[in-house]
Amino acid sequence: MKMLPTVISNLFSKPATRNYPFFVRDNFEKTRGELVNDIERCIFCGSCSRKCPSQCLTVSKEGTVGTWKLEFFACIGCGVCVDSCPVSCLSQKTSHRPVAVVRDVITLTGKLPEKPAKKTEKAPAQ
Ligand code: SF4
Ligand code: SF4
């Protein structure tokens, strides 16, 4: 009997939930959403991949080409990779990636930065 007022009020009030996906709630201002890599600026150092707690990032190098892979189904959106990137080429949108039914991996490739020239020994002064 104690619950009766609550039951009656719930019968005549609006539902507390939304009919997703027809009504989608707006994201919060600081939502950590979709991870984006500006691959032109990436130096393929691998820092993001080493720090990622869910191990969903892979960085590899072959010849002059670097590859950055994100298994986005495993990404928890923590933002650790964004904070650890030395060139700030990673960012997160304030919206989430659209719903997908196929488990996929995002693969981006770019040119590796040129290595600094090796130091040459100074010629002895004459
Ligand atoms: S930390 Fe930044 S620069 Fe390094 S591999 Fe990751 S995205 Fe590229
Ligand atoms: S946001 Fe977190 S879980 Fe997702 S790739 Fe970056 S470090 Fe990994």
Task: Record keyword descriptors for this entry.
126 residues, alpha+beta, Alpha-Beta Plaits, binds iron/sulfur cluster
Inertia-based shape: elongated
Listing every helix as H and every strand as E from the N terminus to the C terminus, the arrangement reads HEHEEHEE
Hetero groups in this structure are: iron/sulfur cluster
How many strands appear in the DSSP assignment?
A: 5
Placed side by side, the strands forming the largest sheet appear as 2-3-5
Q: What is the rounded Rg?
A: 24 Å
Biggest β-sheet strands, sense, barrel: 3 strands, antiparallel
Low-confidence stretches: none
Instruction: Estimate the strand proportion.
Output: 15-25%
Class derived from helix and strand content: alpha+beta
CATH-defined fold name of the domain at 42-113: Alpha-Beta Plaits
Topology:
Elements: H1 4-12, E1 35-37, H2 47-51, E2 57-62, E3 65-70, H3 80-84, E4 90-92, E5 106-111
Antiparallel strand pairs: 1-4, 2-3, 3-5
The structure holds iron/sulfur cluster (2 copies).
Please tell me about this protein's structure:
The radius of gyration is 24 Å and the shape is elongated. The chain is of the alpha+beta class and 126 residues long. The chain has a domain at 42-113: Alpha-Beta Plaits. The termini are far apart. Helix content is 15%, strand content 19%. The protein is built from three helices and five strands. One iron/sulfur cluster is lined by residues 37, 42-48, 59, 68, 84-85, 87, 89-90.
Structure described in brief:
The chain is an alpha+beta fold. It contains 3 helices and 5 strands. The model has no long low-confidence stretch (mean pLDDT 91).
